[in-house]
Design a protein that fits this description.
This protein has 108 residues and is mainly α. Helix content is 35%, strand content 0%. It contains four helices and no strands. α2 packs across α4. The protein is elongated and about 55 Å long. The relative contact order is 0.17.
């Protein structure tokens, strides 16, 4: 049975690259630790579809290897309680105006 992750726990290419950068790991190092082919990892991190021979558990192994090294993944809206360094990609809502751009001209 293939290993799958719930969608809120899936690993995106951007999160994978960011987590690897936080650890200062090369693609080869992550591939070795996660037991995945380095060519597959390079394709995954570039957002390309894995080949037909891809193992569906490879993404789960990447995530486990990164977590074992100390990376915590946060779901959308989840607060960080660990107190360590981290990252999050903020999804801006339509009509969002950054605080520095607020003025009476854009009051709704």
């Amino acid at each position: 049975m293939p290993e799958t992750l719930p969608s809120q726990l899936s690993l995106s290419p951007a999160l994978c690259r960011a987590a690897r950068a936080l650890l200062n790991w090369s693609p080869a190092e992550l591939a070795e630790r996660a037991h995945v082919p380095v060519d597959w990892l390079n394709e995954f991190e570039q957002g390309r579809e894995p080949g037909v021979d891809a193992d569906p558990g490879e993404t789960a192994r990447l995530r486990r290897a990164l977590q074992a090294a100390g990376i915590d993944f946060l779901a959308a809206g989840e607060a960080s309680t660990g107190g360590g360094e981290g990252l999050r990609l903020h999804h801006q809502k339509a009509g969002y105006i950054a605080a520095e751009n607020l003025s009476s001209a854009n009051d709704g």
